Amino acid sequence: MLQLMQSDWQRMWKRKKTFVSLLIFVCIVLLDCLFLGMQRLGAFDNVSTVPLTAQNFSLFLLKEVSFFLVLIIGPILMIDSFNGEYHSGQLRLVLIRPISIMRMFAAKWINLAVIMGIFLVVTFGIGEVFGHLLKPSVDTVVFLNPDRSYDPTGAFMYCLQSYGLFMLILLAQLSVTGLICTLLPSPIICYLGWVGVAVGSMYVSNTFSFLLFGISTIFEWMAGSYTHAFLLPVFVCVTLGFAFTMLWWSRRNWVR
Amino acid sequence: MKVLEIEQITKKAGRRTLVGDMSFDIMQGDVCGFVGPNGAGKTTLIRMITGLIRPEEGKIRIEGFDVQRDRMKALGQVGAIVESPIFFPYMSGRENLLNLVKLHPNISKEKRAPRVDEVLRIVGLEGRGKDKVKTYSLGMKQRLGIAQALLGDPKLIILDEPANGLDPMGIRELRNLILELNERHGITFFVSSHLLDELQRICSRFVIIKEGRLVWQGTQEQWQLMAGSRSLEDHFVEMMTS
To answer: Residue A89: its chain B contacts at CB < 8 A?
Structure first.
């Protein structure tokens, strides 16, 4: 399993797409930091705002970059790994080796999860540093729920927890994208498929709005005002998507 | 000793039978030509042998290991180029092999780099190993394809149309490489090709298929006896049109 992960990890980082994505992402995070540095207020939605401080800076930074991560960087890297290699015929080189195909899928899933984790750690790290450089530190801070205030440590934990929840949403996206990439033939169609699923799921039920509006969901859930189930559907997406795709991979015909 | 056993293999796509009730064996040390017209089912069978697709019926064993049941053990005995030799173009030839050698559990961490250098030397690419694969000619890609097939020290190497697109020099190099690997290293080869002349020069046995069915199998001497005064090509065309 470790060898499978190492092999896939090496290929992933050798592809220009991955490195360029990280570079572009860091640039966007830095630009968003400068943008937030010029703002006095941070907005949770169209109505609720709070003063931007060193303690809540990283949370609003996540809000700024979340769409980019969910709609551009995340799908590009996931589809490239799950579908791009297969579509180009390169995965055949791996599939004809004495390996377990189920483990190969698991290795790809774990590697992509780690990369998504890296993107979030980079965002959080830059957010904390720039927050303390550009904004004043305060003794108490409130977030979306005005009745709850937090000291600097509590605010740090609040932001960290929000990032953790966003990571769970990215894992749900990873599993769903894995399934889409297994069912649909080409990378471009897979991307359209992902956008279709993310948008279309909202028409099915608001429960799945986290796939597209993850950060709003997290804001409300952390404030205790989210009215739908959150963690259960996220875990359902993560586990069912993962298990179903893994099973499919072990039984499918690899015709490319 | 049987290296490859194909036992009553059937593969269908909808109602169409791609490979039907096919059975034959390849013995150790054979260089076996796998011949048939376009669409006869050669690549489909090769994909089944390498575990890429599943047969509806029948069994495929490599060195006694069932490809479906003991996939890892069976595929540990085989190296292959399936269709065209595609690599990771963003890596050098050596990096490609270093990446793939990690997937062979029979090669320890310390032995990976020496094994890669050894197979690069065997196929004569040691001087170009550090160059990106996208700069390779088709002949070099074929040789790199054989290098990747050699990584796991296989008993059997399967080559699917290896001479496609090669110039006469490239074809000669490939032929010499196959014969050398067969004679020096005792590797069994199963080579699909349209080029009967070329196969005649290297193959001791032939398996001939048409429309997914086995038409004939035997040694080159047996085929020549059967063809009589006709060339093998003429006899092959006769078999395909009758």
So the answer is: 83-84, 86
Q: Are the C-beta atoms of residues A166 and A214 closer than 8 Å to each other?
A: yes
Whether residue B89 is contained in a domain is answered as: yes
Distance CA B87, CA B104 (A): 17
How far apart are alpha carbons A42 and A53 in whole angstroms?
Answer: 9
Asked if residue B139 is part of any domain, the answer here is yes
Mutate to test the interface with A, among B45, B53, B56, B103 (most CBs of A within 10 A): B103
Contacts of B96 in chain A (CB under 8 A): 93
- Dump pLDDT digits (tens) for B113-147: 999 998 898 888 888 888 999 888 888 888 898 88
Residue of B nearest to A17 (CA): B90
Domain assignment present for residue B205? The answer is: no
pTM of the model: 0.88
Domain count, chain B: 1
Q: Does residue B49 sit at the A interface (CB-CB below 8 Å)? A: no
3-state secondary structure B176-189: HHHHHHHHHHCCEE
Separation CA A129–CA B48 (nearest Å):
55
Residue B143 structural domain = 78-153
Closest-CA residue of B relative to A104 is B103
* Model confidence pLDDT, tens digit, residues A116-163: 999 999 999 999 999 998 888 888 888 888 888 889 899 999 999 999
Q: Where are the beta strands (DSSP E) in A63-117?
A: none
Quick one: which of B81, B79, B86, B87 has its CA closest to B151?
A: B79
Task: Calculate how close chain B gets to A253, using CA atoms only, in Å.
Answer: 4
How many CA within 13 A on the CB side of residue A213? 16
Q: Do B88 and A93 touch (CB under 8 A)?
A: yes
ipTM of the complex model: 0.84
Question: Two tokens at A75?
Answer: 């799908």
Q: Is B35 on the interface with A (CB under 8 A)?
A: no
Instruction: Flag if B80 and A96 touch (Cβ within 8 Å).
Output: yes
Stretch (H or E) spanning B174: helix B168-185
